Fold this sequence. Notes:
- This protein is α/β, with parallel strands linked by helices.
- The protein has one domain (7-147): Ribose 5-phosphate Isomerase B, Chain: A, CATH 3.40.1400.
- Helix content is 46%, strand content 16%.
- It is built from six helices and five strands, in the order E-H-E-H-E-H-E-H-E-H-H.
- Strands 2-1-3-5-4 form a five-stranded parallel sheet, with helices on both faces.
- Helix 2 (47-60) packs parallel to helix 3 and helix 4 packs parallel to helix 5 (118-130).
Amino acid sequence: MDSDDNIIALAADHAGYDLKQKVLNWLEDNGYGVIDLGTHNENSVDYPDYGKKMGQCLTSGEAARGIVICGSGIGISIAANRFPAVRCVQCHDVTTARLSREHNDANVLALGARLLGEEVIFDCIVTFLKTGFDGGERHARRVNKLKN
């Protein structure tokens, strides 16, 4: 990827707005650059618009990784995955966050603001950001099939 791996794109709908702000502050406090794709308040918006913003951001190379948040994490992950440059996974614990990186080279983490506690959410974020892709012929072959 062309962009700095230390820059994280961040997007949420209204249900994820409060959590997005906490994640944004945490990322900045931990030395990450953040591209805030919105939303910028709690007014009702449509999650597909913010999944699209994430897809466009990764497609353009502005960021190599991202985090998307909606009430469940489901809708925004579906929207983000409509872009070939995105491999978005909804995670609900550190094991799914770790495996999504090691085996699938996922580049966007989807979180459900209404489903997970903050401790689990931040454990998932840390694991997702710190875990690398294992690669190897088997996993790389499968990820390459997703790209094509």
